[in-house]
## 1
Amino acid sequence: MKDQDGSITADDVAVLAGVSRWTVNRAYKKEASISVKSREKVMKAAETLGYVPDLLATSLATDRTNLVALLVDDFANPHKLVMMERLTRILRKSGYDTLLVNTSDEEDASAALLNASQRRVDAAVLIGVSFNDQSLEAALGAKRVKKLIVFARMSGNDNTISICCDDSASMTALTQYVFSAGYRNPVFIAGPQTQSAHLQRKEVFLSQWERTAGKRPDFLPVGSYDPKMAYDLIAKTFRGLAKSELPDVLVCENDALAMGAIDAIRYELGLQVPGDIAVTGFDDVPQAASPHYELTTYRQPLTDMAKALVDVLEGKSNSKDLNTFLGRLVTRESA
Amino acid sequence: MKDQDGSITADDVAVLAGVSRWTVNRAYKKEASISVKSREKVMKAAETLGYVPDLLATSLATDRTNLVALLVDDFANPHKLVMMERLTRILRKSGYDTLLVNTSDEEDASAALLNASQRRVDAAVLIGVSFNDQSLEAALGAKRVKKLIVFARMSGNDNTISICCDDSASMTALTQYVFSAGYRNPVFIAGPQTQSAHLQRKEVFLSQWERTAGKRPDFLPVGSYDPKMAYDLIAKTFRGLAKSELPDVLVCENDALAMGAIDAIRYELGLQVPGDIAVTGFDDVPQAASPHYELTTYRQPLTDMAKALVDVLEGKSNSKDLNTFLGRLVTRESA
DNA sequence: GATATTTTTGCACCCGCGTGCAAGAAAGTT
DNA sequence: AACTTTCTTGCACGCGGGTGCAAAAATATC
């Protein structure tokens, strides 16, 4: 029995179909020169044998794996789950599979990256946050990685393609909304301050607000996009302050921070949201819609961004301006 | 230049080191018979050239990819994020990479699965929920998948290895806790009722409670492990009922449902948790600890389970009793 | 110093499929 | 019918490395 080890090769199909192995493979190639008869014979034989072409061998021969490494380092943020779902689904639709690489452990990050490159991924997509320059550099150092893409985040590195929504436009919209809603004393809750790949939300908000309201707001950087961390920091920072010393709105860099903020305001400061302090987020994670948070936030056009990613992978990305995606402000009760 | 296309092969290293290609490869094999001198020469040459063995070629030759497909179909449950983090990290530590396969789209599920098998994954790990029998069957049909593992869930299929915590023990503990806390009128909030791979929590709870309190509780099946769905169903089911008609505790199959339940109780029924209706969950997702939920729940020993998974992958799993992991009850304010 | 052992190394062939080219078959021309 | 042109097909060789065995080198034995 040929298939006793469970693997049927093109050769097996070839003998059954009465053609050569190469004809078998041609049958699977869309634009191959092969007669309809042969293709049918092959396909029928393939079906009865349960043959499927081996992607390993194909990849080795073509130097194209149709594999994308997705580097994630921040599993505390529920938005990552949303991104993963969207990316894997859309990538799959275009024929790509996703290698999930956990880079949350600093030590293992470069090893994991090296490993992915040894698998000759067609591209590495970073949806992490605290990618310090070493990690990025390591990624670039792995020559085998043909493309390095920073997703949903700007990149300062030239060897990198970044696909993200227009932080400037989005934060401007948010700023205007917050201002016109009557808030006058905001504090910006920022995430980790990274160098290579970062968000511009803080800068945009601070300068936009200054331009609009005349004074530059304070900001509070949280060590990571973790609701708990935001909770603790906000509790620590604002506890015991008089009403007049408190901000009237916390503009948070994303929903993870915003949810921590809301909890802290309610359960540590004993205040109302939005009555005493309003809160805004960014991302529109599923939980943001819960009646408990009712978070005013900004939803990125993830599907479009993912499609742009596919275009980049297939080399048909027209230009470099992939940082101008526009999402939409989702206004709820929290501000 | 050899490396103009970015790929240095063992041959390149061989000429630099002045040995044959085979000696180069031997240098990378731990128990290979090679003189220390040669190994050093090779390693030095490899380093200056930046050589790393190609995993694609290795996999093809050895029929071992060190790749595990992780099939996920339920991205609404934050616990999935926790599992993914844990699994990817521990698998990586043992030399495995993870292929993330999104099977949430029913149509694409089998295609995705087929694709994974074409990559000759060493195993497919299901951490999904609504795997109906077709999906499972499809997975088994893909001969190339050497092992099929159902993680954190029982499997009725014999060709499948299931690694999960002891639903019986855990739910018994939970039942006892709830009963001794004085609750007498529980309703069980169940997830989708699947066949092949399912949880036994409902059955265990119902029978345990019957044994303890004398009467079999009602249960409410939710279409998916989605907080929103649970929210809507609970709102619809209990709205307008008199206090006496309401349960005093909702025992939920997992935290996702429990969080939806809590929100519904508070924001739709206008009642207190746990004052009017208490709630318990299962999984101990990060959000369960938030002051808003303070959810009493049960934490599975994910790390141990992941390690057991590695044992299975490496073929050194002693027996079939991988369903007896014990977690611990985490008691908080919600019940 | 010659022979027997053991260690190290090289090599042919294989994993499953892709590419470019040349031979063979089919279709089109006059 | 003989000859072109076009379509199909087969094949050598390559992708990068693993395996088992035999030749070569190093070491041990008497």
Note: Chain A has a mean pLDDT of 89.
## 2
Amino acid sequence: MILRLNQSSGIPLYLQLMEQVKHAVETGALRSGDQLPTIRKLAEDLVMNPNTVARAYRELEHEGIIELRHGSGAFISESLAGVTKVTRKVQAVMQSAVERLVAAGLTGDEIRRLLENELAVLRDAKRLQGAEHE
Amino acid sequence: MILRLNQSSGIPLYLQLMEQVKHAVETGALRSGDQLPTIRKLAEDLVMNPNTVARAYRELEHEGIIELRHGSGAFISESLAGVTKVTRKVQAVMQSAVERLVAAGLTGDEIRRLLENELAVLRDAKRLQGAEHE
DNA sequence: CCAAGTGTGCTAGTTAGTTAATACACTACA
DNA sequence: TGTAGTGTATTAACTAACTAGCACACTTGG
């Protein structure tokens, strides 16, 4: 598995790392039990501070994507077995929607706004049902 | 038209203002030619610095949503006439997709990631066609 | 032509987020 | 059992974004 960084993109390095690991998991390039590069090793390869890699790993663990074992290393979680299949179906839904929107001439930003509006509507609806807003 | 702010949400005030103006335009609460509140007036009503309102207005102008006239005030652009009808259709596409995804148990964040992935795929596809990345 | 009301520009203070430096604690294995 | 390799924790420097203060410039209407 190959990880790359874009130092000048303005996107935080630790987020770039998280994104790439997630994407690798979703596409199947990384599977449950696979070991990730060591914090120090990866930091050296990418010429960055180990703390930054550590932060990416820590947050990935918090999201349940990976598992950190103290003296051993970082591994893809075991509980992600059936996830990819569901992901495929769900991806199809989003893909079809995005294709139609792009065909209608919308830009990425406009599509994002559309989604945010829709999510806002749902939040409002929930609030009216008496649910707590997180 | 009523504008409100959430001081403690962590979302920048000027973005909250922009969002609400955009939403009002999309829902038809504001129409082409309508005058918006004065920068100072709105700043006073909402207990914030006029510069923050000015920033929101400036960026809305840059996006073509409103038009600023120096000694006069701020007005909704004239060129937004047919926009809302297209918006309706396009909203329906997104709404249907989001409903299905929520029904599948996905959270807002997960749906956002799904969209970002899809947009990334499109960007990559375009790049391979030789198009320039903005 | 003047005065009140409008948007504009420049500058600085404040804050939150990101990254880096350094020292610590746990685990595997010879 | 000790040592090399792993993740962890604390602190500080750096950076970018947001907001505010204050002075300027344009327009309208009397």
Note: Chain A has two domains: 13-80, 83-128.
